[in-house]
Amino acid sequence: MTDAEFEEAKARLLPYIERWIKPLGLNWWHIEFVYVRDEFAVADKPAPRTLASCKANWRYLTATIEWNMARVAEEDDDDLERAFVHELCHVLINEMREHDDDWLDHEERVASTLTMAFIWLREYASGEDPQPESTLAVEHHNGQVKPSSPVPEEEVVPAVDGIKRQELRQSPRHSRRQ
Description:
The protein has 4 helices and 8 strands; from the N terminus they run αβββββαααβββ. The chain is of the alpha/beta class. The strands form 3 sheets. The protein has a 4-stranded mixed sheet with strand order 4-5-1-8.
């Protein structure tokens, strides 16, 4: 990835900070955005197809969201915004993690559901025609949330990216770094 491609991908993410942090009630959190150019990893394991990863510490209201810039460059704007909101949902629901084996399954389903609710609300508030009120299937591919066509409720299956997220060190403010 060239410097110009990196900066272009980064510029695509920056408007979502303004669009979503305050409306989701996260302006009192310290959220650091890290833009990873090479060799994206999650929990010290290579994850080249993962779009983003969130590490949050609800006790101290801190979070870091890392972006795989090679993947950011590949995504269309709608999918990128959904992924951005999805990662912020992990910040909101981090404290609900349980110590059983399937805690991430539950967190992923809630994050995906909140993502669709927030996107629908934004579309509704802006006068756009939001998705129908029927249940939407959600495909979750390597950290990316995509709505698909309406399906019967009994066919909706929670999606999981299988990434284990870890708590993060304390930090005092919003920041962005490369």
